């Protein structure tokens, strides 16, 4: 008997016998994902998550998952003829995402809540719900793609549309999750997706993309941090690289590493935020050259490359890394150190901020494979202090260049 050919989602079986849960945010991308799969004959179930008290965000442009978005998702589901459910995930979202966001800022970090939302809420909790509903896969409107590997497992690759690629926000996806997830838009461009929305006659075809942090309806994240972590809003000193006080600030949460504007101090040369010291409530500033970091310590590393990381890492793995979502990948080495993992940037990078992600790729451009990543714990430079004209710190070992 001839084995069944995989369907368009690389699953065995006819589409009509294949149940797919689609995470529907109410935006264009997830709506088109649902409509596309429905048009191909899949048994589609739409689920929208209510993640926070959306009353204040209902009319906020650029906010996602708000009351309007739930309404839009419901309308799309009705339009294309699929069942649709709204699940109340407010308490778990507050615990996993909002509280962590506030804690991270209070520690002087610059967190990326979308990563934690994908990791903890969508690809853990919602994925479990999809399994309970008997779905063969959970599909999302993210701009990444996945490919089947020779051993039957799946690899994550960057989106065909590099301007829309969301791989940075999905680095924490595990191998097991990847086997169950599908990303139908990964090989499409945004204009193609909007054209499909018009073809499916969806009212949201020209809806604006979400831009802000979804649970900050006012756009002022310090309001939330101040409520949850009042200590993070306490004033402190602005100091130079030598520790000299040159100004005052109203809370370290108002600053991020690499920031130049809004420091509130006069200077003959441009000054940048080089470091945030939460314990002493100090904002350390210096010249631009003091921002360039060479080595990054990571925490919570997730590896989805070939083989177990501890077995394949050897003396180091050559790769490309992205230290912010808006930065291009650049060459680096990943190495094991006593208490975890460290990345060495071949050319260095400015504005490396604790709390952001460092994401691993096997190529610098195109539909590169995502090898995993980790959160930035700290960053150092071999000669950062010397370059800035202050007392030199103990030198780090010279880099291996391969």
Describe the structure.
The protein contains nine helices and 17 strands. It starts with 18 loop residues before the first strand and ends in a 15-residue tail after the last helix. The strands form four sheets. Strands 12-15-14-13-16-17 form a six-stranded antiparallel barrel. Strands 3-2-1-4-7 form a five-stranded parallel sheet, sandwiched between helices. Strands 9-8-11-10 form a four-stranded mixed sheet, with no helix packed on it. The radius of gyration is 23 Å and the shape is globular. With 402 residues, it is α/β, with parallel strands linked by helices. A hairpin with a 2-residue loop joins strand 14 and strand 15. It folds into three domains: 186 residues, 3-Layer(aba) Sandwich (Rossmann fold); 53 residues, SH3 type barrels; 90 residues, Elongation Factor Tu (Ef-tu), domain 3 (Beta Barrel). Helices cover 24% and strands 26% of the residues.
In short:
The chain is of the alpha/beta class and 402 residues long.
How does the overall form come out from the CA principal axes?
globular
Mean pLDDT over the residues: 89
Please tally the β strands and state the result. Answer: 17
Query: Which segments are poorly predicted (pLDDT under 50) over 5 or more consecutive residues?
Result: 56-65, 384-402
Strand content: 25-35%
Could you spell the SSE succession in H and E letters?
Answer: EHEHEHHEEEHEHHEEEEEHEEEEEH
Number of helices: 9
CATH topology grouping of the largest domain = Rossmann fold
Helix content: 10-25%
Number of domains: 3
Instruction: Give the N-terminus to C-terminus distance in angstroms.
Output: 51 Å
Q: What value does the Rg take, in angstroms?
A: 23 Å
CATH homology superfamily of the largest domain: HUPs
Q: What is the name of the CATH class of the largest domain?
A: Alpha Beta
What's the CATH architecture of the largest domain?
3-Layer(aba) Sandwich
Q: What structural class results from the helix and strand content? A: alpha/beta
Spatial sequence of strands, sheet with the most strands: 12-15-14-13-16-17
Largest beta-sheet details: 6 strands, antiparallel, barrel
Domain tRNA-specific 2-thiouridylase MnmA-like C-terminal: 294-376
GO molecular function, one term: methyltransferase activity
Family: Belongs to the MnmA/TRMU family.
Subcellular location: Cytoplasm
